Amino acid sequence: MRLKLEDPRILAHLISIISELVTEVRIKVTKEGMSLTALDPANVAMCYFNIPNDLFSEFVVEKDETLGVNLENLNSIMKRCKMGSSLIIEKEDSSLKIIINDKIKREFSLALIDVEGDDKQMPAWEFKSVVKLDAQAFVDAIEDCAVVADACTFIAQPDKFIIESSNLHSAKTEFSSDEAQIFSDASSARFSLQYLSKFVKGAKIANRAEINFSDNHPMRLNFPSGKVMLSFVLAPRVEQDD
Questions:
Q1: Rg of the chain over CA atoms, in angstroms?
Q2: How many C-beta neighbours within 10 Å does residue 229 have?
Q3: Which residues contact 109 (CB under 8 A, 6 or more apart)?
Q4: How confident is the model at residue 239 (pLDDT cuts 50, 70, 90)?
Q5: Which domain range does residue 200 map to?
Q6: Residues 92 and 11 occupy one common structural domain
Q7: What is the pLDDT of residue 241?
Q8: Maximum Cα–Cα distance for the chain, whole Å?
């Protein structure tokens, strides 16, 4: 297996974001591309990314590979990539050889590990509400809510989408159909801001966010960036009031 990225920044961002949610993961490399699906230790959130093979300048895969890695260790290596670096990943027996080329050639060896658990797949749900909006505007709304509470409520109607939270204080952001694409009946669900505050770092790779949810049902949050997809699933909070 030999993979080469002329610009490894998007992979570095993906690893950095997901490493805040899970530590030990199984990265799949098939002839179609590289992907990861993992469940967080609390079984509350799931994360996923996919990078198709045509985004690699070299993509040599003789057979499907499942790479058990510690994301904290991989993230530390990926941080060594600089602007203008290229990245090569090769599998050698029980380790990954990671080569960073810029002005000089730097080489790392990352031990592969056994990661227990079955291969997971993102659930294929249908949702009552789908909202597509500017990713940074979504980040701002989540950060506003995190100032005043530990959970927020998503409320969607055919012509508006609201993100609000309340405790002793309150915060509310409302998007009209002029500011977001809203495909919805009436839906409402409440989610943890601890998780959402990590998810919204997906705005590093995408200009748009897509929020999918239904009444008191797990949500799916997508950050599409060209052919690359970063997604999260989050279970709803069961409490009724902040």
A1: 19
A2: 19
A3: 92, 95, 96, 97, 98
A4: low
A5: 129-234
A6: yes
A7: 47
A8: 58
Burial status of residue 115 (CB atoms within 10 A of its CB: 0-12, 13-18, 19 or more)? middle
Instruction: Give the model confidence (pLDDT) of 136-173 as tens digits.
Output: 999 999 999 999 999 999 999 999 999 999 988 999 99
Q: Which residue has the tokens 């669900």?
A: 189
105-111 vs 129-134, strand pairing mode:
unpaired
Rounded CA-CA distance 91/112 in Å is 9
Return the axis-axis angle of helices 9-18 and 71-78, rounded to nearest 10°: 150
Instruction: Tell me if 121 is assigned to some domain.
Output: no
Q: Same structural domain for residues 93 and 19?
A: yes
Sign of CA dihedral 130, 134, 135, 136: negative
> How many domains is the chain built from?
2
Is this prediction's pTM over 0.90? yes
Identify residue 160 by its one-letter amino acid code. Answer: K
Least Cα distance to 3 among 37, 33, 25 occurs for 33
